[in-house]
TrEMBL record:
Name used for this protein in its record: Transposase
Stated role: Involved in the transposition of the insertion sequence.
Integrase catalytic domain residues: 106-270
Organism field: Paenibacillus apis
GO molecular function annotations of the record: nucleic acid binding
InterPro entries, alphabetized: HTH-like_dom, Integrase_cat-core, RNaseH-like_sf, RNaseH_sf, Transpos_IS3, Transposase_IS3/IS150/IS904
PANTHER family linked to this entry: TRANSPOSASE INSF FOR INSERTION SEQUENCE IS3B-RELATED (PTHR46889), TRANSPOSASE INSO FOR INSERTION SEQUENCE ELEMENT IS911B-RELATED (PTHR46889:SF4)
Example of a GO biological process term: DNA integration
PROSITE patterns associated with the record: INTEGRASE (PS50994)
Length: 278
């Protein structure tokens, strides 16, 4: 081989024994950390979020370079496919609350404004519906329930879970779409008992409830569409529980809250509040 390439044997053996350059060692380290974060988030992070994680570790690198390295490694984050089932029944004569929230999604304190919605979860054993309640300040899912029927009990139990977990004060704005479950007499009475102010989206305007719809889109992209359909309802519950409670709330970084997870942001928010009060 040396003769064909016109290279001396001594030069070849010297090359074999030479140590990698500083640039090569740095790239190897970056590739190792990219691979770690990609698999640690179960293939859910693309180059923007992985770049952020690397910078938190003290590795200064551009998003473009991370994207190139991910292509070299053959790493690609989950990509969603489009599938939508109608979950809003607004064709009813029940009372409709005014749009109090009015797309004011920026809130300065937790437990001042919650948004909620229902989404369909495909399962081979039968249909499932997920009701979620999201805090607009921390972006944390403060309550959720997964049932096989899209009834008022589904949304009531999700609301009860959120209320008992966070114990919000009087006057919290509770925003939903115009679905019959949220407009029902039972639900309106529960909001009154919890001293919450009801707010509903305008008819046919999905942007009025964009934050919770965005969460459901993320959940489907990162958990459901990139995995085979759930075989059983118990498997669906276990996987969604694991995603919401352990990944989304506690681990997944969110650009709207300074690239922190909802739980970390809530904790840092509480520390800042205590310092101001002291």
């Amino acid at each position: 081989m040396c003769k064909v390439l016109q290279v001396s044997r001594s030069g070849f053996y010297k090359w074999l024994q030479s140590e990698p350059s500083e640039q090569e060692r740095r790239k190897a380290k970056v590739l190792e950390r990219i691979t770690y974060h990609f698999h640690d988030t179960e293939k859910r992070y693309g180059s923007p979020k992985i770049t952020r994680m690397l910078r938190e570790e003290g590795i200064q690198i551009s998003e473009r370079t991370v994207s190139i390295y991910m292509q070299e490694l053959g790493l690609r984050s989950c990509v969603s496919s489009k599938f939508k089932v109608q979950t809003t029944d607004s064709d009813h004569d029940l009372p409709i609350a005014p749009n109090v929230l009015d797309q004011k999604f920026a809130t300065t304190r937790p437990n001042k404004a919650w948004v909620t919605d229902i989404t369909y979860i495909p399962c081979r054993e039968g249909r499932l519906y997920l009701a979620s309640v999201l805090d607009l300040c921390t972006r944390e899912i403060v309550g959720w329930r997964l049932y096989d029927r899209m009834t008022t009990d589904l949304v009531l139990d999700a609301l009860d879970a959120a209320y008992h977990a966070k114990q919000p004060g009087k006057g919290l704005i509770h925003h939903s779409d115009r679905g019959s479950q949220y407009a029902s007499d039972e639900y309106r009475k529960r909001l009154q008992a919890y001293k919450m102010k009801a707010s509903m989206s305008r008819k046919g305007n999905c942007y009025d409830n964009a934050c919770i719809e965005s969460f459901h889109s993320i959940l489907k992209k990162e958990l459901i569409y990139c995995n085979p359909k759930f075989k059983t309802k118990q498997q669906a519950y276990n996987e969604i529980y694991r995603y919401i409670e352990f990944f989304y709330n506690r681990k997944r970084i969110h650009s709207a809250i300074g690239y922190l997870s909802p739980v970390r942001f809530a904790a840092s928010f509480e520390k800042k509040t205590k310092k101001r009060e002291a």
